[in-house]
Amino acid sequence: DAKTTQPTSMDCAEGRAANLPCNHSTISGNEYVYWYRQIHSQGPQYIIHGLKNNETNEMASLIITEDRKSSTLILPHATLRDTAVYYCIVRVGNQGGKLIFGQGTELSVKP
Amino acid sequence: DAGVIQSPRHEVTEMGQEVTLRCKPISGHNSLFWYRQTMMRGLELLIYFNNNVPIDDSGMPEDRFSAKMPNASFSTLKIQPSEPRDSAVYFCASSLDWNTEAFFGQGTRLTVV
């Protein structure tokens, strides 16, 4: 599975957009980009995923560059409850493709 | 659906004892994952199953660890004998298929003293 690189930590003001970058320069054609987050003392929570097109759901938007070597997760209006560790994962698309978590980005949303 | 259900939520045991962690995946999901989380090593994939068959157990740390999935609605992770370094939060997750999102349980916090 491709390795991902994320900043260790980021701050964001409440109400502003949080933009979390991820590099995955060795991604293969059949690998999806997944984003999860883990709020303290809880299990990881799925946010969004994509292959090559930009994606949006009720939680966030995922912007994937044309060469697919990097992506950005956007939380459009961050709240204090979005404070969490955010994980960018590339997942190979075969039977039962496994999720390998890196160290993630610790996002702190401040009032 | 109640989501992925893990039991117990907390387990304290003495070194050398056998520990069994349990997981009930979401009904209809075909893939099941066991993870371990520690401060030092983060989230580590231990083993995952697809259609009740173990696909990759390369993350299982030692022979003391074993996992089974006797049917589509139940899985166990057993540690025998347990050691203090096994203390961690163990998460179970399930997903519908290979390219769909995984849903995680609330975890079992294991403390081996």
Strand content of chain A: over 45%
Q: What count of helical segments of chain A does DSSP give?
A: 0
Strand arrangement in the largest pleated sheet of chain A: 1-9-8-3-4
- The run of helices and strands of chain A is EEEEEEEEE
Low-confidence stretches of chain A: none
Please give the largest β-sheet of chain B.
Answer: 7 strands, mixed
Structure description:
The complex is a heterodimer of chains A (111) and B (113). Chain A has 111 residues and is mainly β. In chain A, 0% of the residues lie in helices and 47% in strands. Chain A is built from no helices and nine strands. In chain A, the strands form two sheets. Chain A has a five-stranded mixed β-sheet, with no helix packed on it. The radius of gyration of chain A is 13 Å and the shape is globular. Chain A starts with 8 loop residues before the first strand and ends with a strand. The mean pLDDT of chain A is 92. By secondary structure, chain B is mostly beta strands. Chain B is 0% helix and 56% strand. In chain B, the strands form two sheets. In chain B, strands 2, 4, 5, 6, 9, 10 and 11 form a seven-stranded mixed β-sheet that branches. The interface between A and B is medium-sized, with 23 and 25 residues.
Keywords:
heterodimer, A: 111 residues, mainly beta, 5-stranded mixed beta sheet, 4-stranded antiparallel beta sheet, 9 strands, 0% helix, globular, B: 113 residues, 7-stranded mixed beta sheet
Quick synopsis:
Chain A is an all-beta fold and 111 residues long.
Topology (SSEs and partners):
The complex is a heterodimer of chains A (111) and B (113).
Chain A: E1 9-13, E2 18-23, E3 31-38, E4 45-50, E5 55-56, E6 61-64, E7 70-75, E8 84-92, E9 105-110
Parallel strand pairs in A: 1-9
Antiparallel strand pairs in A: 2-7, 3-4, 3-8, 5-6, 6-7, 8-9
Chain B: E1 5-7, E2 10-13, E3 19-24, E4 31-38, E5 42-50, E6 53-56, E7 65-71, E8 74-79, E9 88-95, E10 102-104, E11 108-112
Parallel strand pairs in B: 2-11
Antiparallel strand pairs in B: 1-3, 3-8, 4-5, 4-9, 5-6, 7-8, 9-10, 9-11
